[in-house]
Amino acid sequence: MAAVMRASVFVSWVLFSSYFIASAMAGVSFSTLPRTLVLTSAISSQDKSASNVARAGEDDLVVTWRLNESLAGGEVDSKYKSVIVKLCFAPVSQVERGWRKTNDDLKKDKTCQFKITEQPYSSNSNNTVTWTVEKDVPGAVYFVRAYALDVSGSQLAYGQTTNKNKTTNLFVVEPISGRHVSLDIAAGVFSAFSVVSLFGFFAVEKLRAKK
Amino acid sequence: MADQSRSSVGGSVDIEASPGNSMHGVTGREATFGFSVEGTESAAAGGEKFKVAVDSEHKATQFKLFSFANPHMRTFHLSWMSFCTCFVSTFAAAPLLPVIRDNLDLTKRDIGNAGIASVSGSIFSRLAMGAVCDLLGPRYGCAFLIMLSAPTVFSMSLISSAGGFIVVRFLIGFSLATFVSCQYWMSSMFSTNIVGLANGTAAGWGNMGGGATQLLMPLVFELIHSKIGSPAFIAWRIAFFIPGTLHILMGLLVLTLGQDLPDGNFRALQKSGEKVKDQFSKVFWYGICNYRTWIFALLYGYTMGVELTTDNVIAEYFFDKFNLTLHTAGIIAATFGLANIGARPLGGFLSDKSAAMFGMRGRLWLLWILQTGGGLFCIWLGKAGSLPLSIVAMIAFSICAQAACGATFGIIPFISRRSLGVISGLTGAGGNLGAGLTQLLFFTSSAYSTGTGITLMGVMIVACTMPVWLVHFPQWGGMIFPPSKATTATEEEYYGSEWSEAEKQKGLHQGSIKFAHNSRSERGSAKRSHSIVSAPTPPSASPLPHA
Q1: What pLDDT does B42 receive?
Q2: Whether the Cβ atoms of residue B221 and residue B239 lie closer than 8 Å to each other
Q3: Which of A142, B104, B297, B525 is such that its CA lies 20 to 30 A from the CA of A116?
């Protein structure tokens, strides 16, 4: 009986402490971040089909960022150590897809899943990166967001290419299909082998039985 | 628990009636094939040829797990491995969902529908498989299914939309009917005293495939994606060639190494002529009119059904909730299915032990405790906020649910003698229906998260296990009430009631009566005799044949 008591005390302790540990590890809240960075993005494509469509694996995204001019010269950016630029899902691509859900707690937020670049912060206005849209990027509607990070990697401020409701200036990524002619052929060959060897075996056995 | 009657020369042989036989028994009328690896006519006096002890039908009476001796143990291994392969391919998409959902732009509804489709196909294919095994024998039944479903696995690499994904998962799900050929084949190779153990082990080890695939597929994917460098959206398609190739391999092994019966060829089994083939309509009628059939179909839906559901959702759940990598989520998810290696046989073993002490009442109580415990752990799993606690809850849930599966099939053989095949089939179908229904209710809509869905599933398990309280056998009692004191409350009366007077006149019910004698072991250790009031007599003092 004493052992059971001790065991249940231990279990309750584990449960309580895991709750407190979890809450102590909550991340920065997005709604508290000031929007101090100004971000623009453009699609650079060899073959100009539509201006807001980028093809995965082929087209480039050109992103530029700078500190908002009205804040220049002040102390706003004194703690900014680095900038991380990410590709983020627009609300229309988050519908019925809980794995892309926006959460105000940035440790749990899944809006921005693809890293474009991470660079040290510099206060001059010529920060640019050209990023080829990777082949792993799914087909969806996106915008670009950048976070200013401090020394420990916590977010201090942000900037994004769209408005607060994430409805303007969105672009589409056209993904790779994942299919390939060699895969199609291999699938056909293997399948045919399976069916033919089965019926072949069957026929041979039947014939031998008749002899 | 099993029918203890050994056939003697000229005695009536209840081949169809052995417990654990899921659909039809071997009737001796299957087609004859001339090709056999073991050579043509095996010696009729072939008892000396076998590496395990056999009975007069040459069915094994010993279960040597680590032997591959032809034909009995070899059949066991071919059987469970082919069933396992089909589980691997049916649930192969589950651990790769984080990649597939991005490639095909799936919504939660699409994923849910695909999960439902993956378990629905086999409801129908299992029903047809019994007939296929009757026609072609279990070896060809198994080989046909596994090799004809190989193209469906390969066609996973060709799809590019949600609709295609759902259709292909549906088609691959047909292959789960290898359960029927597996059980059928075991029943023709293993004698009644161990056929329950053999069938239970084969089924449990086959179910492990649902766990093994969660380990295998992410590993293969990582290999192709990271080491070879293919983009993710191509790598997962290539990964599906592994289960597909396994299908072909197992099919060829079954064809070349397997044989239908212990003697190699199909020969019309010499029967004394006492066993007349039963009428399907009668068998079906008595099966569906027994209320216990429906209770156990529901119960199985919430033990096996939730196991299948969890195989489909758990890897994605861990991946999303704890931000794990694909292969870490896969390893955790795998432990759920792999627990089958011991948990399901454990359930059967505990059921037999509780029957030895408390009879059928012990079996029912054990089942209720295990299954309700599983439901409670499932509720905890959905609510657990940290990774270690989630894993503990999941493992506890898996052991309870899988042991409950084993315990269910400890009771099924006693529900009916005449309609055992139909009841086993309906129970199995109930399992898959439960899986489909649970995924539809809790894992398809975006109204709540997967974690909430898991908790609700746990609540439903507890609720749907309650009906076992209603099960009552007049001769053995139920969970609440002891056996009836009426003089008609005997095993013979219970099993004899499935035959009409006309049939009894013809003596068709003799097999059931024989089984009824042997099932007195379900009265437990305090034997109650209806004719003599006496102190409890130990089973060994009974004049009736016992193990």
Answers
A1: 38
A2: yes
A3: B104
| SS3 state at A128 | strand
- The DSSP letter of residue B482 is -
The pTM assigned to this predicted structure is 0.81
Token representation of residue A92:
């229309």
> How many contacts, defined by CB atoms under 8 Å, are there between A and B?
127
Q: How far is residue B209's CA from residue B118's CA, in Å, rounded to a whole number?
A: 14
Chain A residues with CB-CB distance to B316 below 8 A: 99
CB-closest option in A99, A178, A187 to B234: A178
State the Cα–Cα distance between residues B248 and B242, nearest whole angstrom: 10
ipTM: 0.86
Q: Rounded to a whole number, what is the distance in angstroms from the first to the last CA of chain A?
A: 76
pLDDT higher than threshold 60 for residue A209: yes
∠ CA A176-A179-A182, nearest 5°, is: 135
- pLDDT surpasses 90 at B410: no
Of the two residues B309 and B133, the one the predictor is more confident about is B309
User: Does A186 contact B at CB distance below 8 Å?
Assistant: yes
List, for residues B21-31, the tens digit of each pLDDT value.
Answer: 333 334 443 44
* Beta pairing class for A53-55 and A171-174: parallel
Nearest-Cα residue of chain A relative to residue B106: A97
Output the six-digit token pair for A38.
Answer: 């100004």
- The kind and range of the H/E element at A120 are strand A112-120
Q: Which residues pair with A158 in a beta bridge?
A: A35, A147
Contacts of B491 (CB under 8 A, 6+ apart): B475, B516, B517, B519, B520, B522
DSSP 8-state class, residue B216: H
Can you tell me whether residue B357 is helix, strand or coil? helix
- Nearest residue to B24 via CA among B507, B424, B431: B424
DSSP B47: G
pLDDT > 50? residue B45: no
What does the pLDDT average to over B50-61?
Answer: 73
- Contact status, residue B333 vs residue B307, Cβ threshold 8 Å: no
For the sheet with A37-44, list strands across it: A37-44, A60-67, A127-132
Q: Nearest by CB to B108, which of A18, A98, A140?
A: A98
The DSSP bridge pattern shows strands A171-174 and A140-149 to be antiparallel
Structure tokens at B65: 């797990």
- For residue B446, what pLDDT is reported? 84
**In the numeric block, which tokens belong to residue B308?**
């299948």
Looking at the DSSP bridge assignments, the partners of residue A131 are A61
Nearest neighbour of B34 by CB, restricted to A98, A99, A205: A205
Q: Output the 3-class SS for B366-397.
A: HHHHHHHHHHHHHHHHHHCCCHHHHHHHHHHH
Q: Which residue has the tokens 């590019």?
A: B160
Cα–Cα separations (whole angstroms), residue A40 to A57, A169, B10, B269, B531: 21, 10, 91, 82, 94
Are residues B244 and A198, on separate chains, in Cβ contact within 8 Å? no
CA B264 to the chain's CA centroid: 26
pLDDT of residue A84: 95
Contact residues, chain B, for A184 at CB < 8 Å:
157-158
| B41-72 residues labelled b (16+ CB within 10 A) or e (exposed) | ebeeeeeebbbbebbebbbbbbbeeeeeebbb
Cβ neighbours of B517 (radius 10 Å): 18
Answer whether B538 touches A (CB < 8 Å).
no
Q: Do B150 and A97 touch (CB under 8 A)?
A: no
Instruction: Please say if the pLDDT value at position B150 is more than 90.
Output: yes
Instruction: Please compute the mean of the pLDDT values over residues B460-485 and round it to a whole number.
Output: 92
A106 alpha carbon, distance to own chain's centre = 13
